[in-house]
Design brief:
The protein is built from 7 helices and 2 strands. It is mainly alpha-helical. The protein has 2 domains: about 80 residues, no CATH class; about 60 residues, no CATH class. It has a two-stranded antiparallel ribbon with strand order 1-2. The radius of gyration is 26 Å and the shape is extended. The two termini are about 45 Å apart.
C-alpha cells in the first residue's frame, strides 16, 4: 500500500479506506450506503480532474510533483494506480462495435495527453501496443513458433528479450529466400548441424 489509510481525506475518507481494506465491518444497510457513497465520490473525483488539469496553478502542480527537489516517488506510484483504475474502468465498460477495452483505453490516454498539452500543441503521433496475459503461455507459444520455423516479428522478439523467454541456448542466423541460414551450403547436409535456430529438446 502506498501510504496508510489514516492519511487525510482524498476521494475516500478514512472510514471508506478502512471498509475497503477490511478493517471496518458494516451491517447490510450500512454497507450498501457505504458502497453507494464510494461510487459517487469516485465519479465526482474523476470529474474534478477537469478542474485540476485546466485551473490548478503551475506552481501548485509543481509542488505536488516534487519532494526535496526531485520527483516525488510516492506521488508517481499513486499515479500508476490512477492509470490502473482507468484501465479497469475500460475493462468493465461493455465492448461494442465501435471499440474494445484496449481501443477505449488507448483513446482515453491519447485524448488525456491532448488535454494536458499547452495551447497550440497537439499529439502528432501516438502508438501504444498493448499485449497482456500469462507470460508462461506467451513463452510456450513463441517457442512453438520457433520450432515450427515460423517467422517472428520484431515486437515478439522485443517481448521475448524483455521477459527472458529465450535463454542462451537459442541462436538466430540470417536466412536466405529458401529459409536456410545464409552460411549453410544447401549441397552439404552436414553443414546444417552447426546452425540450428533453437535447441534440440
Amino acid at each position: 500500500m502506498i501510504s496508510g489509510s489514516d492519511r487525510d481525506r482524498g476521494i475516500l475518507t478514512t472510514d471508506d479506506r478502512d471498509y475497503l481494506i477490511g478493517r471496518k465491518n458494516l451491517g447490510t444497510g450500512s454497507e450498501r450506503n457505504a458502497r453507494n457513497r464510494i461510487r459517487d465520490r469516485t465519479r465526482n473525483g474523476l470529474y474534478d480532474f477537469e478542474h485540476l488539469t485546466t485551473e490548478l496553478a503551475k506552481k501548485d502542480v509543481s509542488q505536488i510533483a516534487t519532494k526535496d527537489g526531485t520527483a516525488d516517488e510516492q506521488i508517481f506510484n499513486g499515479a500508476e494506480y490512477a492509470i490502473a483504475f482507468l484501465f479497469k474502468l475500460c475493462q468493465y465498460a461493455p465492448d461494442n462495435e465501435t471499440y474494445t477495452t484496449d481501443e477505449l483505453f488507448r483513446e482515453v490516454l491519447r485524448n488525456g495527453i491532448e488535454k494536458a498539452l499547452v495551447d497550440g500543441h497537439t499529439v502528432l503521433d501516438f502508438k501504444l501496443d498493448i499485449k497482456y496475459g500469462s507470460p508462461r503461455d506467451a513463452q510456450i507459444g513463441l517457442h512453438k513458433k520457433i520450432r515450427r520455423g515460423d517467422a517472428i516479428t520484431l515486437a515478439e522478439l522485443r517481448e521475448a528479450l524483455r521477459n527472458n523467454y529465450l535463454d542462451d541456448t537459442f541462436r538466430f542466423e540470417p536466412v536466405d529466400r529458401h529459409g536456410l541460414p545464409m552460411c549453410v551450403d544447401p549441397g552439404d547436409p552436414f553443414s546444417y548441424d552447426d546452425h540450428g535456430s533453437y535447441p534440440n529438446r
